[in-house]
Amino acid sequence: MSEKIKVRTMAELAAEGKEPEILFWVGCAGSFDDRAKKITRAFAKLLNQAEVDFAVLGTEESCTGDPAKRAGNEFLFQMQAAMNIEVMNGYKVKKIVTTCPHCYNTFKNEYPDLGGQYEVYHHTELLQSLLEEGKLKVEGGTYKGLNITYHDPCYLGRGNGQYEAPRNVLHQLEIDIKEMKHHKENSVCCGAGGGQMFKEAEPQKEEIFVKRTREALETNPKIIATACAFCNTMITDGVKHYNKEQDVKVLDIAEILVNGIKE
Amino acid sequence: MIAQILFTLILLAGIGYFWSNVSKAIRNVKLGKPSHRDDRKNERWRNMLLKSFGQQKMFKRPIPALLHLTVYLGFIIINVEVLEIVIDGVFGTHRVFAPLGGLYNFLIGAFEILAILVIVAVIIFWLRRNILKLLRFNMPEMKGWPKNDANIILYFEMVLMSAFLTMNAADYKLQLLKYGHYHFKDGIVGSFPVSHFIANFLPTDPHTLVMIERGAWWFHIIGILIFLNYLYFSKHFHILLAFPNTFYAKLPPLAKFENLESVKNEVALMMDPNADPYAAPVEQAEEPDRFGAKDIFDLERIYLLNAYTCTECGRCTDVCPANQTGKKLSPRKIMMDVRDRMEEVGKNIDKNGSFIDDGKSLLDYISKEELWACTTCNACVEECPVENDPLDIIIAVRQYLVMEESAAPAELNMTFSNIENNGAPWQYSQMDRLNWVDED
């Protein structure tokens, strides 16, 4: 993936008097976390491949305020929301796609009431329709014979009822998902939500991510698929905890797809 | 005649005391802030039908669901029999519905079969709690009263059903003996698929049989009235409150948290370029809203109703990732704490006429350690058979801690200041947001 990725910013396009069809909201993890940046690149590559007319905010992007809201700092959340809405409405944004289920939930459910009304897609939803429309074509057989399981992120699955889009992308790749004991609405959290990503856990017997990863490993997977950068971090840590990082990869749906499409 | 008057008085007293306690519960729920849940009516009715009437969510766990369904159907259907008992009691009639003929026989037969099924189900419930000691019934918050409460309910049901069957058995035997008004000229009235076995064990002397029949009859109806009045003090209140509770429950998407109105006003003022920073504060008729919830008064009414409706089944705690990994947080305990505090405030009002500050709050019941362990994953909300929402309560108290007391854990305060200064929860420069494009 070392080739140059073509990404334009909203500001550049605006200077040319253009508006892209959709804003790719990269999110904080996607911008700064070394592991998550790879997911961002994979998704941007897919957008280029499918010739989607998109742009990013780049340095004008800021935290949606989700971690603040879940941790009880409603004030900070609403301040962030007000600033982001001002920026996005300034660029007349109509559609947003994001790889982060937390940003997705915030835009989709909490911004409208504050003056930010957009059509919001999680990247797995957009990828699903790009595959359906034939704008992305799978190579076929890339993942033949590999055990793959999928972990539902809380804010995509239980929180927003989106269980099928990520699974459909995997099905398009001819992957037969080995489901964990707890999946879809009964899925178990990775342990990152509600501000936990940014603090030490309270006194406990074990880490939540260890527990969740144990269940994933019980399916004997080669790949643990997920659709959230935070889940990815937690489960990657879990795989390391069990010294399985040589055998088991933790990959985002976008990364799995990017390796399985026709160039 | 004396029996009729006595019966009517007991009935009125039973219903009257129950009503006074229900009024108290309504008053207590109204201590909270108004909830605005009158939108999406069709979905709400549907939710109530499926989740309350149809017990849809119970069936996530089929074995207890079937046992619970048995007891629930028994409860509803056998209440038709209670209607007959009440009419007989007030008007001095005996088996007033007997003229229904074949239908009556079918009904009485069905009640008997349900009654024995209820007894079996209740015994299994008791074994699960007391012998098998299922984990979720034996957690720290289930010591003392909550444990006794659960068992008392089971004993009540066993005793009531036994009284019902004994009454029928004695009645059946008296009919066979063609004794007094128990004798119907058309032969045996009612069918007694269960109690005719019990009849074998009863004496044959008609006077003793009448005493047994009357004794069981009075015992049964007085027992029901006591049980009715027990609801207010018990987790068993859910048999009534599950209906409004599921109607006003949070509708999907579960991950949506409402935006606080009080904060909206503040932010609007801050963002308004025309706002006069030196303006004198507008005279307010009442104190401004507290940010978040310190006590039950700050919670929306729906959460207080949630607390009364909670059956303490512990499914929420069972699926809570924090609890599963040995942390102190238990969503069930959050619900129980809210109810306990609400009861405490209620008693304070009963005693003093209106609430007199007792220097306590919800935070005397719920510790910070519990509050900060929540991952907001919504597993508890998804799991709750009566659609309670412990998560929103946790968030409301977190809001109080953060915005009124600045009492977030130090690491979260760091996160807040990073978001404020760098626009990200980590200490990275906003100028580096596009670096990913050229990295590999």
Itemize the secondary structure elements and their pairings.
The complex is a heterodimer of chains A (263) and B (440).
Chain A: H1 10-15, E1 22-25, H2 28-32, H3 34-49, E2 54-55, H4 66-70, H5 74-90, E3 95-98, H6 101-110, E4 119-122, H7 123-132, E5 148-150, H8 164-172, H9 208-217, E6 223-226, H10 229-241, E7 249-252, H11 253-258
Parallel strand pairs in A: 1-2, 1-3, 3-4, 5-6, 6-7
Helix pairs in contact in A: 7-8, 9-10
Chain B: H1 2-29, H2 41-53, H3 62-91, H4 102-130, H5 145-176, H6 195-199, H7 206-230, H8 238-247, H9 261-271, H10 301-309, H11 315-319, H12 321-324, H13 331-352, H14 368-371, H15 379-383, H16 390-403, H17 410-422
Helix pairs in contact in B: 1-3, 1-7, 1-13, 2-8, 3-4, 4-5, 5-7, 8-10, 10-13, 13-16
Description:
The complex is a heterodimer of chains A (263) and B (440). Chain A is α/β, with parallel strands linked by helices and 263 residues long. Chain A folds into two domains: 10-129, Rossmann fold; 137-258, Rossmann fold. Helix content of chain A is 41%, strand content 10%. Chain A has helices at residues 10-15, 28-32, 34-49, 66-70, 74-90, 101-110, 123-132, 164-172, 208-217, 229-241, 253-258; strands at 22-25, 54-55, 95-98, 119-122, 148-150, 223-226, 249-252. A four-stranded parallel beta sheet of chain A has the order 2-1-3-4. In chain A, strand 6 (223-226), helix 10 (229-241) and strand 7 (249-252) form a beta-alpha-beta unit. In chain A, helix 7 crosses helix 8 and helix 9 (208-217) crosses helix 10. Chain A is globular and about 50 Å long. Chain B is an all-alpha fold. Chain B folds into two domains: 2-30 and 61-247; 261-269 and 287-429, Fumarate Reductase Iron-sulfur Protein, Chain B, domain 2 (Orthogonal Bundle). Helix content of chain B is 59%, strand content 0%. Chain B is built from 17 helices and no strands. Chain B has helices at 2-29, 41-53, 62-91, 102-130, 145-176, 195-199, 206-230, 238-247, 261-271, 301-309, 315-319, 321-324, 331-352, 368-371, 379-383, 390-403, 410-422. In chain B, helix 1 (2-29) packs across helix 13 and helix 10 (301-309) crosses helix 13. Chain B is elongated, with a radius of gyration of 28 Å. The chains are: A alpha/beta (263), B mainly alpha (440). At the A-B interface, helix 2, helix 3, helix 4, helix 5 and helix 6 of A face helix 9, helix 12, helix 16 and helix 17 of B.
